[in-house]
Amino acid sequence: MLDAVAFAGDALAPFFLQDPLTGDAGASFEAMAALDPAAAAAEWPFAEEGEAREALGLMVAGLAGGAGDEGLAWEYRRLFVGPAPKPAPPWGSVYTDRECVVFGASTLELRAWMRGRGVARLGGGKEPEDHIGLMLALMAWLARNRPADLDEYLRGHLLTWAPHFLGELAGAARHPFYEGLARLTASTLEGIRAERGLKVAVPRFYR
């Protein structure tokens, strides 16, 4: 199970973190474009197979023009970069903080949790630690390196807000790739939650 959790986090994180044109996740986009959705869904961990098949189908269809397709890149920037207001911001505190701010209380709580366990932040840059891509990557790292901390991380930090965000993202996406990504990630995380028997206290959302 831990290997499957690590695979899911590693497979999904780059699509949230990397611009298709200028990022360094070209190999991930190429691998996704080459998938047979039905065959891949049968092997994809945790997600319900029918949902995984539909979501993967959307992602593969969205890559028909390749990762270099400008429409794909523009959608990534619209959703995750700006400068216009983002319809589904990828940071947890935007949803859980009363002021809907980046680097809010939940970000600081995650940072303190990581520091208390000697867990270094993953990746460079100045992104807050509660960016969905960084948190999926951290899920994979914990599954491989700190499995004893995985459930606490999922229950107290990632699963508190990610399902809400992913629902917002699926509704806001205007490109099949990112709608499929949101749906696949949501189904995968729900499967992980159920498989590990986690009870998550859902906070109040302000957005």
From TrEMBL:
This is Tat proofreading chaperone DmsD. InterPro entries: DmsD-type, DMSO/NO3_reduct_chaperone, TorD-like_sf, TorD/DmsD_chaperones. Pfam families: Nitrate_red_del. The keyword tRNA processing does not apply. Keywords: Chaperone. The keyword Chaperone applies. Transmembrane segments: none annotated.
